[in-house]
UniProtKB/TrEMBL annotation:
Site feature: Involved in heme-bound ligand stabilization and O-O bond activation: Y29
Protein role: Is involved in NO detoxification in an aerobic process, termed nitric oxide dioxygenase (NOD) reaction that utilizes O(2) and NAD(P)H to convert NO to nitrate, which protects the bacterium from various noxious nitrogen compounds. Therefore, plays a central role in the inducible response to nitrosative stress.
The name this protein goes by in its record: Flavohemoprotein
GO biological process: cellular response to nitrosative stress; nitric oxide catabolic process; response to toxic substance
Record's catalysed reaction(s): 2 nitric oxide + NADPH + 2 O2 = 2 nitrate + NADP(+) + H(+); 2 nitric oxide + NADH + 2 O2 = 2 nitrate + NAD(+) + H(+)
Residues of the site described as Influences the redox potential of the prosthetic heme and FAD groups: K84, E390
Family, per entry: Belongs to the globin family. Two-domain flavohemoproteins subfamily. In the C-terminal section; belongs to the flavoprotein pyridine nucleotide cytochrome reductase family.
Length: 398
């Protein structure tokens, strides 16, 4: 337990963290990874380059300081991060390393403002936070390993089938090399894929949502090739598309994540996806259609056009009310009338097509898409607690 004095000192640093948080986390990652380059086998290099990891950590540290006297309020966020840590292979021995360089970064960035009293308080506070993560992650590792078909850390899978779903999305059907059954999962969860790409000194780990219903035989991930000119090229996604073929081996973690479909909720279900955000929602759609055939389900997917639209036929075959929104339909799309709205999803359109607003909502897609859809749902009267969402990459808030 932290003393009242320690809590008071940590809370007093909240304004400073709000102003200098990202400077601290940038300095932290730079110094830690220089001293411990082996951790590059775990961290997403692209998120490091574009600053998303630094921003996510700064937000987490800030939230911890704000709620240090009511830590129960951040437990949901801790569990969200812990899921990712377990799927990446973060272990207890990593926490002292992180603590050492995080405290040093606070001291280096804040300079004289980081008094001995502040450094001591933050050292104690970090110890409590680290112990919380270690305890939660221990339970997650044990659960992953003990479940039927489960394992610890990473396991070799081979690609049983590789299917091109659209211009940019390809599905990989993967099975354990040892011939065992695969652990079950909850619709919406993801796996981590670990590969060694040509010319890279370190392994690369990426998390991909499972895009099929649990079946005990295989996992399916549907991967978008990240190759847009205005974005960093996806090292792993391009490697999977270009070099990983049927029969090849990749390493995989046990499914993780808490962005999952609540099958205890009997309200109408509305699933809204954009681009490759269709992947976790496809799993949700398939499971809900099978296990809750009486449930009112609306599935809305937004894509550039038919050439970029993955899993279209599969979604249309499951008995839900299915609507497609194309921002830039082709002449073929227009001639075939194979979409329901041209342009972007708007609150006015959602007002028309969602018959019962008192529903359970799940959204996934690019960040601008999710922000727009989230606001559109709020605008038509949907309560915020009814809207569930997940980001691909470090956690953020809409």
């Amino acid at each position: 337990m932290l003393s009242e004095k320690t809590i008071e000192i940590v809370k007093s640093t909240v304004p400073v963290l709000e102003k200098h948080g990202e400077d601290i986390t940038k300095h932290f990652y730079a110094t830690m990874l220089k001293a411990h380059p082996e951790l590059l086998n775990i961290f997403n290099h692209t998120n490091q380059k574009i600053g998303r990891q630094q921003s996510a950590l700064a937000n987490a540290v800030y939230a911890f300081a704000v709620h240090i006297d009511q830590l129960e309020k951040i437990i949901p966020d801790v569990k969200l991060i812990a899921h990712k840590h377990r799927s990446l292979g973060i272990k207890p021995e990593h926490y002292p390393i992180v603590g050492k360089y995080l405290i040093a970064a606070i001291k280096d960035v804040l300079k004289d403002a980081a008094t001995d009293e502040i450094i001591q308080a933050w050292t104690e506070a970090y110890g409590v936070l680290a112990d919380t993560f270690i305890s939660i992650e221990k339970e997650m590792y044990e659960e992953a390993e003990s479940k039927k078909g489960g394992w610890r850390d990473f396991k070799e899978f081979y690609v049983a089938n590789k299917i091109k779903e659209s211009e940019v999305i390809t599905s990989f059907y993967i099975k354990p090399k040892d011939g065992s059954k695969v652990a079950s999962f909850l619709p919406g969860q993801y796996i981590s894929v670990r590969v060694k790409t040509p010319g890279s000194e370190y392994t690369q780990i990426r998390q991909y949502s499972l895009s099929d219903a649990p079946n005990g035989e295989y996992y399916r991930i549907s991967v978008k090739r990240e190759a847009e000119e205005h974005k960093p090229k996806g090292i792993v996604s391009n490697y999977l598309h270009d070099f990983v073929n049927e029969g090849d081996t990749i390493e995989v973690s046990v499914p993780a994540g808490d962005f999952v479909l609540n099958l205890d909720n009997k309200k109408p279900l509305v699933l809204i996806s954009g681009g490759v955000g269709i992947t976790p929602l496809m799993s949700m759609l398939k499971v809900a259609s099978k296990e809750q055939p009486e449930r009112d389900i609306t599935f809305i997917h937004a894509a550039r056009n038919g050439r970029y639209h993955a899993l279209r036929e599969e979604a249309s075959s499951l008995g839900a009310k299915v609507l497609f929104c194309y921002s830039d339909p082709t002449e073929e799309d227009i001639a075939a009338q194979n979409f329901d709205k041209k342009g972007y999803i708007t609150s006015e359109w959602l007002q028309e097509v969602i018959e019962n607003k008192d529903a359970d909502y799940y959204i996934c897609g690019p960040v601008p898409f999710m922000k727009a859809v989230y606001q559109a749902l709020v605008d038509i009267g949907v309560k915020e607690e009814a809207i569930h969402y997940e980001f691909f990459g470090p956690s953020m808030k809409l």
